[in-house]
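## retry 2 of 3
previous attempt timed out at serialization; input unchanged, resubmitting
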Amino acid sequence: MAESPSVVVVGAGITGLSCAAALRGRASVTVLDRVPVAGGVHGWRTAEACDLVGRCGARLRLGETAIRWDGRELLALGQDGVTRLPARALVIATGSRPLLRAELEVIGSRPAGVVSATVACHLAENGLPVGRRPLVLGGGDWASASARALLAAGARRLTVAVPGALLSDMPDDRRLDVRQHDRVVAVHGRCRVTSVELASGGLVECDALVLAHGLAPVRNVDGAVWDGHRTVYAQPIADPGSVEGARRAGANAARAVTSLVDG
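## retry succeeded, writing output
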């Protein structure tokens, strides 16, 4: 019997685990993730991730970072040093991120206090709100998560500017002011954010701007991909996201890997 081809999946979220599960029996899969917990943003608190970990049949290497892929071998860095992982294909399933200031075309000065929703949530969950009167730009999953985390961390007033209709539920809180069909066009302040200008012409006083609108694939592992040879990207950017969307992206990636390896 011919030996199963080796495949490395970078990202142990629902997408990466679903890809590994779909490849079970057709490839020998190793799933790599820089964080020590499988499941990602959609599934680490749910039975979904546990079920996929049990069914995917992959070798999990958590707490390791992809360094370099040359089309034949991935170098990964963990607490025990560098490991070489030979493979016939690499799947990048590292998720998505909110758009950055330049991508959102927000002009003005560059004071402290302009942060991504990922940073704002991480700090707030550790009791460190980015501001007492922040403004969140966005209406999807990251905007909702940011609003909840900031209010729980002690924000005194929170404004949410939504460039369109709300996509995800916002908390029911008297400190929250939601402004739909408006977006931030400029930031004001010298050392610290003092206000932002909205497309409607209004000026909102705030001490932080949290960027939570739109999604783009996370590309922090692109430096590992030397020339893109035998690489499959599996990074859904639907907002709001869903476990089903992540599973579908993983299954599509598995089909692409099978075609690539067979070819």
